[in-house]
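Readers outside the structure-tokenisation community will struggle with the description of the input data as it stands. What matters is that the chain and its backbone geometry are given together, residue for residue. For illustration, here is how one protein appears when written out as sequence plus structure tokens:

…
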Amino acid sequence: TRAVRNVSNIMYNFVAAAEENPWLQKLDTTVVNSKLERRRATHAAAVEDGSFWKMDVAEREQVSPEIRQVQWLDMRSAVLNAFTSMNRTFTPVNAFQAEEFSRLRIHHRDPMFITMVALLELHSFPSLRSLIRHSASLDPQAELLRVQWLWEGMSPEEVMAIMRAADQEKKGKNHRDSMFWTAEEREAVHARRQQEDEDEARVRHLPHSRH
């Protein structure tokens, strides 16, 4: 990420494909949400009777609500939920968020730009096979070295100099990171990867000659 207060984070995105995870295929969100509701009730009771404040950190973590709800989203809804986080006017994703933000007098959501970009990148793969093929073509260590540009001990001046140099290099090469691709560019990448899927399938079904 870009440096904020002289700190840059390396983000890893993991994809749990239902085709590879039977537990995910069978996940019942109703059951999960019922458990979350019971956890909220347990936490509220512990706060009410004062026992929560006598717990150590590990014990509190076991009863404190972690999330409100889990829900399956289609890709369009997921991208839209992230995109609207950057609206000038507060745009809640559901009634609970609207109520809580009003209660706590919070007027803006945290920007979810990187989440949105990750979803759009995932959407550019027409199949699980396409995603696997792309991932297998990458060297994790080389990718880490490619994206890491902020190092321990750098001064603010050094950080700014690197950022300016990178911006100038991109301008000179007419370069734009994939996170800034247009819809047309993303569609072109999707089409290319779909063609790769078809080519791979065709090769896989070709008759093999015997010697």
